[in-house]
Amino acid sequence: MPSGCPCVSLDASCVSASHSSASVTQSYSLTQAHKPTIMATVAEPNAIVDWPDRYAHIDQILENAGPRTDPAFAAGDEVKGFLRTQAKVLVIGAGGLGCEILANLALTGFKDIHVIDMDTIDVSNLNRQFLFRPKDVGKSKANCAAEFIMKRVPGVVVTPYFGKIQDKDEDYYMQFNLVICGLDSVEARRWMSATLVNMVDPENPESLKPLIDGGTEGFKGQARVILPTITSCYECSLDMLNKQTVFPICTIANTPRLPEHCIEWASVLEWPRIQADKKLDTDDPDHINWLYTKALARAKEFKIEGVTWSLTQGVVKHIIPAIASTNAIIAAACCNEAFKIATTSAAFLNNYFMLIGTEGIYSYTFEHEKRPDCPVCGGEALEMTISADLTLEELIELLQEKQDIQIKKPSLSTADTQLYLQAPPQLEAATRPNLLKKVSELVKGDAAITVTSSTLPFNLTLRIVYN
Amino acid sequence: MTTESQDISDVITSAAPDAKTRRYDRQLRLWASTGQARLEEARLLVLSASATSTSILKNLVLPGVGHFTILDDAITSAADAGNNFFLEGPSSIGKPRAQEAVRLLLELNDGVVGEAITDKPISTVVGDLEFLSKYTIVIAHNLPPSQLDTLSKSLWSTASAPILLTVNSSGFLAEIFIQHAPHPIIESHTESLPSLRIYDPFPALLEYSKGLDLDNMDPTVHAHVPYIPILIHARSRLDGIPKTSEEKAAFKKSLLELKKKQDEENFDEAYAQAYRVWAPTPIPSNLTQHIFPHLEDKLAPPVLPPSIHGLLVALKRFTEREPHVLPLSPALPDMKASTESYIHLQRMYKDRFNTDKEVLKSLIPEEAGDIPDDLVDTFIKNAHGVQVVIGEQYGAFDKDPSRIANALEIAPKDLGVHLALQAVREEIEAAGKSGDALARVEREALTKRVLAKLAKGTELSEEIEEAIGEVIRAPVADIPNTAAMLGGMVAQEAIKMITRQYVPQSGYCVVDCIDMRTGVLV
């Protein structure tokens, strides 16, 4: 544990009494747990309600070192005390992975858990997000999940936040020992990873917060451990993402061949043309119905088969198939790493675990390498070779498309000039004429270009070479 | 799919998904309604309500398995209440464990039926084939070896007996094994693609491609000829198939020379796909080596269902005829083309698919009975990925010294975990400590049991020593993260077996949550 495991003195009746006789445990009840004699003497209000033998299983791990355990492992009360009364973890996402992560953390003995999720519960979540029931549809995922865990696993405090990760500042993130991400959004992951990298202060070891990230798709998934600035960060691995299928506008408009082309035509071209300013809400079944009708008519016109309601919804919402079992595997892998990091009971993952369940149980564990020119954690300038005729606008387009950068709405400047700024509006207007100028005219010699993004804590240095 | 005569407004009302489809949307996109129907027909028997067992069940109740039974006569202990999410903490202590677990699992999905059997010890059912045969799959976690042995023998005695999915875990280490009769998979969801028949075009495709007048084409049409006919056309003008690397390079260059304008992407696609002209798509060895030779003996009904056997016999006969290819799949990938040229090409593939389908149907032996047309369609569309996983009896690996010796060489870590886990279950049963959450084992006793499984004189490797050490550390620990991971893995395998889609695990799958890796022993 980078922040150390301060030894907490616990009342023996709480933790060390795990070998008391079975007859005592049989007559034990929740109300008794609140009696002060059984409570730990620790000040934290959350460190209560541990009944004898509660942790009989996990304590086998925490009381004994294994042959591969780090010699620094403080077996026994010290490590149990840290886990159960000191450790504070943050879970990002209370969806498919988040529900599983919260349950695992709670059962493992983490007592102070925070969770952030901006989403509300949809009926299609119920096939896997097992902390929610049909009556919860429409409610906040973070609130519901927190409430359920606290009811099911007594003594665990889950603090929910129904909102965005971007609402919180560094002071907020600084309070946790580690962060676990169970997200379906690349954007949110990039933001979280970059924020934690930026928080690292070499003078203050506490500022380094391990980030554990999980993701799934169908029968496949991955879990990884990121030690910000030390191991490869989320940004370092952007090029591993599958490139999203983008249908060229000319295909959609002129030469549709697939049912997907007809659906894209309905949502990208027909909706704005006919519905004008009305915003397309892909969660609104009436809107999907409208798109489906339009797409089906177009498909008929072009003799294309295969437009269905389900496909329409899948294409416009970019639906990724998701099942409980895959989420269970990946969430368990994430929590297992959190547990190992928090307790040093076993070495943690270095640093990437990939699972493919479509053909047997196949997995691949490897060390993903840090990118020296990573715009978030690398520090080295990224070299780009471009034509001397390339305009600034074309360079910006290139940066947005580049698989290992994928920067949205970048602002560019050199040490002495603002090349193009996305905001504020006055500066945007003032720098806009530069877009049509050649980069070679704007940037002399090998001057470095600093690229920043409004959506990410991101600072990329570009060095241009002309071919 | 809608027919021409249907009015669009009729379609809309019937197309919007019902409540069940909405709930299961994210999984139906994987295994479709056919897989879902099989899942809903399945009946599970789970032996013990341990944390691992309830984790497995959670992942099968959520997607809507039809029915499950937990058989467990244990009373919830303080330790159970601490590590099992499907017990309600201290309030479950003292109550029948299976009953509590069933109640809480059923909250997850009101479309599922579940029951607890608490008045029968597991030992009384493991040899009762009549009882066991009511189920599709039997799942067992940390069963005492003598009971597991009886159970696996019962379930191996006939091909129609339930599948056995067994899990063995201690602390951070675990292994999974599936015992099953030959298991046919039509929808394997393989990532390999069916042949496009560019190497060996069917007559209509060849004729169409040869007849293309690329030179006198309207420039817009020229820029939208799909790459498949371009390749076949270009090849038809050669004397033979390009063989040497020079010939291949020249052929590729000639494709680019056919361009009228530099930006004709269809010719770029042809260039990129040129290898298909000289690369035949052989009939997969899964079919030629593992299925076709055994259709009359070890895969004959009732081992395989008559309908699937009949389709496989027909497929074998089909491939024995000229031109020795699989029936054509109607699936055409997207490619640069105009709507008309693409739809025209697609029509050609569909027509050929229909012709091949009729031929295939005529080759189905009579004893296969009536086979629904949509099954034939599915079969042809997936013919290139069809598999029959043979399966073997639990423990066959351990009775074969040559396989153990081989694993010692090629998978020492996995073998170490396997041997240590096998030994610890034996030792705990021998000491009469099954079900004791605090049981400890001695290194000496465990080492002795491991050595007994190896050839005489084998020295314990570091990998085996480490596995033994880790198992001694936590011999009976069913820790939450390992339980959750096994819950996911076993449920995935159960889903694959039940839906008969995707490919299940063969051999022991070994899980090491310290190194966070999995391995296979075969």
From TrEMBL, chain A:
Stored InterPro entries: E2-binding, ThiF/MoeB/HesA, ThiF_NAD_FAD-bd, Ub_act_enz_dom_a_sf, Uba3_N, Ubiquitin-activating_enz, UBQ-activ_enz_E1_Cys_AS
Organism field: Cylindrobasidium torrendii FP15055 ss-10
GO MF, one annotated term: ATP binding
PANTHER family: NEDD8-ACTIVATING ENZYME E1 CATALYTIC SUBUNIT (PTHR10953:SF6), UBIQUITIN-ACTIVATING ENZYME E1 (PTHR10953)
GO terms classed as biological process: protein neddylation
Superkingdom field: Eukaryota
Active site feature: 250
Pathway: Protein modification; protein neddylation
Biological function: Catalytic subunit of the dimeric E1 enzyme, which activates NEDD8.
Family annotation (SMART domains): E2_bind
Catalytic activity annotation: ATP + [NEDD8 protein] + [E1 NEDD8-activating enzyme]-L-cysteine = AMP + diphosphate + [E1 NEDD8-activating enzyme]-S-[NEDD8 protein]-yl-L-cysteine
Protein name: NEDD8-activating enzyme E1 catalytic subunit
Listed EC numbers: 6.2.1.64
A cellular component annotation (GO) from this entry: nucleus
One Pfam entry name: ThiF
Residue ranges of domain E2 binding in the record: 384-467
UniProt keywords, alphabetically: ATP-binding, Ligase, Nucleotide-binding, Ubl conjugation pathway
Source organism phylogeny: Eukaryota, Fungi, Dikarya, Basidiomycota, Agaricomycotina
CDD domains: Uba3_RUB
Similarity-based family: Belongs to the ubiquitin-activating E1 family. UBA3 subfamily.
TrEMBL record, chain B:
GO biological process, one term: protein neddylation
Entry annotated with the keyword Magnesium: no
Cross-referenced SUPFAM superfamilies: Activating enzymes of the ubiquitin-like proteins (SSF69572)
Keyword Ribosomal protein part of the UniProt annotation: no
Domain called THIF-type NAD/FAD binding fold: residue spans: 24-139
Pfam families: ThiF
One CC-aspect GO term: cytoplasm
UniProt keyword annotations, A-Z: Ubl conjugation pathway
Gene3D superfamilies found in the cross-reference section: NAD(P)-binding Rossmann-like Domain, Ubiquitin-activating enzyme E1, inactive adenylation domain, subdomain 2
Molecular function per GO: NEDD8 activating enzyme activity
Pathway: Protein modification; protein neddylation
Function: Regulatory subunit of the dimeric UBA3-ULA1 E1 enzyme.
Protein family: Belongs to the ubiquitin-activating E1 family. ULA1 subfamily.
Annotated protein name in UniProt: NEDD8-activating enzyme E1 regulatory subunit
